[in-house]
What we know:
Layout: H1 4-23, H2 30-49, H3 53-58, H4 64-78, H5 89-93, H6 95-112, H7 124-135, H8 141-147, H9 150-157, H10 159-177, H11 183-211, H12 217-237
Amino acid sequence: LHLWSLGIxxxxxxxxPLLVWAFWRCKTWRVPLMVAVAAGxxxxxxxxxxxxxxxxxxxxxxxxxxxxxxxxxxYAMRGEAAQPLSDRAWWRQSANFRSLLGLGLLVLxxxxxxxxxxxxxxxxxxxxxxxxxxxxxxxxxxxxVVFSNTVWVWxxxxxxxxxxxxxxxxxxxxxxxxxTPSVMWRSMALVASVALAWLTFVVVExxxxxxxxxxxxxxxxxxxMVGVGALGYATHKAEGYPxxxxxxxxxxx
Length: 253
């Protein structure tokens, strides 16, 4: 279930470069078109949050504006404007304020939001907070003291495999326990998630990104992605393979 967000990201990374390529031919309308796409996605998010929260949560159309916020920030700071934001004096002078405000919005988002009201308008809190933090340089106080802390940097380094590992481990623990596991089991699941994430980063991610110089690496990864997609499609067409043991009716003894 947790792979849905990766699916949305991949769809964005496929669709957005094509849109940028199309927008680049319209220099006058480039920024308004990008803003219009983001605003349309946000508006659809707000609408769906009042009518179909499940669709609102999982649909890429209602979530693209979150990723587009970062794209618009990157363009504003390094775009072709006469004076990008990064060169403006007031922008540099407000770096500490932006990083602190961004940190505050992220903390507030954790405290006040829950799955019953998210994404909807509440998604503006973490998105705005992330944009403000990213917009500030590393010298800004919150970025230097909080986000550059060695422990958090290490957690950030393994965050991708940690995201992949934690959900199946915690879900399996809940299935085995028949409910919410005890604090001890949840703590053990957390330790196992971190350990497996670090191992995955060292054994798989680092070699794949930096050490593997195989000539056909990109093609191999693309073929692997196509294979996984084909397997997922086959599973969908087979209705989740209902003949597997877990789907069979249990015999009453």
